[in-house]
Amino acid sequence: MQRIVSLLSSATEIACALGVESWLVGRSHECDFPASIRNLPQCSRPLINIVGNSREIDTRVKASARQGLSLYDVDGEMLRSLRPDVILTQTQCEVCAVSLKDVEAALCDMLNCQAQIVSLQPNSLSDFFRDIRLVATALQIPERGETLVGQLQGRFQAIQERVKSCLTKPTVACLEWLDPLMAAGNWVPELVEIAGGVNLFGTAGEHSPWMDWDELIEADPEIIIALPCGWDIEKATLELNSITQHPAWKSLRAVQSNSVFVTDGNQYFNRPGPRLVESAEILAEIFHPEVYSSQHTSTGWQRYRSA
After folding, report:
1. Measured distance CA(68)–CA(50) in Å, rounded
2. Residue 93, CB half-sphere, CA atoms under 13 Å: how many?
3. Residue whose C-alpha is closest to residue 3's, from 54, 43, 62, 55
4. Considering only CA atoms, which of 60, 123, 47, 112 is closest in space to residue 84?
5. Tens of pLDDT, residues 231-256
6. What is the end-to-end Cα distance of the chain in Å, rounded?
7. Dihedrals phi, psi of 158, to nearest 5 degrees
8. Residue 233: how many CA atoms within 13 Å on its side-chain side?
9. Do the Cβ atoms of 277 and 189 come closer than 8 Å?
């Protein structure tokens, strides 16, 4: 049995899905699923105030980036005391979670630390499957990685087969941030396609792009989905209330047809872990209720109701 510290919420979920939850000895401040890992020692903390609205948080993040500052602090003393064999982190996004740079900084004075640092970089679904294999190989259980990848790929394929018979594919705008507007990139465009929709903004395998209102107005999507990074349904709904004050909001086709939805982006879409399958199911329930019953309503998504 190896001692694992996971500094990435999706990596924690991958480890648990591989059947090695009992090997985890430490976690990041963001790791909260499954609930049974929440009693593990916390090895990181945010260095900026994460309380506030979209605009306020965006301003703080950009100010830190301009100064070359990290957004997170890793507790080197805690890592030393936990004596990990493997540390799971990421290089995909320094805003989303603790990065490789943060971990290396915390370990630089730990001369006796022999921990293997496994850094994940999921930009697409194929990268996500690669990262599962990478974690499994580092933990010396490669066969479990292959099994898990096969299971998840099979579930994605089942979703595609189920919506194949649907006659229409709605045009969709997925919003990863609300003020300023940001479209969802990386693996989200692939999830939209799997669930039987037409993704309008963001490119599979590329970072999420900023966008402006003119782009949204011109595309005039049939469905708008809010999945702000790090926020649950309640917070996403509050933030969506603020952008509905834009003069063009009520003219959008999705708004007029009551086809605006809010999701728990924090638990599903923003985490490249095993629950990306549930994320695709959520989209399928929204796009094609004629073939998909609402299994994730209220927990994963709900129709937006303005305040």
Report:
1. 18
2. 19
3. 43
4. 112
5. 999 999 988 987 898 999 999 999 99
6. 51
7. -65, -35
8. 14
9. no
What gap in Å lies between CA 33 and CA 40, rounded to an integer? Answer: 12
Cα(103)–Cα(88) distance, integer angstroms? 9
Burial profile 37-75: b = 16 or more Cβ within 10 angstroms, e = fewer:
beebeebbeeebeeeeebeebbebeeebeeeeebbbbbb
Query: Facing residues of 178 across strands?
Result: 181
Query: What is d(CA 147, CA 151) in angstroms, rounded to the nearest whole number?
Result: 6
Domains 4-121 and 164-303 fall in the same CATH topology: yes
**Distance from C-alpha of 100 to C-alpha of 149, rounded to nearest angstrom:** 24
Would you say the C-alpha torsion 220, 239, 27, 94 has a positive or negative sign? positive
Note the residue count of the chain.
307
What does the block give as tokens for 26?
A: 């430490």
Tokens of 296: 């994730």
> Taking the CA of residue 106 as centre, how many other CA atoms within 13 Å lie in the half-sphere pointing to its CB?
25
164-303: what CATH class? alpha beta
Average pLDDT, the chain: 88
Q: What tens digit of pLDDT does each residue of 77-115 get?
A: 898 899 999 999 876 544 444 555 555 555 555 545 678
| Burial classification of residue 218, based on how many CB atoms lie within 10 Å of its CB (0-12 exposed, 13-18 middle, 19 or more buried) | exposed
Q: Which class in CATH covers the domain with range 4-121? A: alpha beta
Query: So where are the chain's domains?
Result: 4-121, 164-303
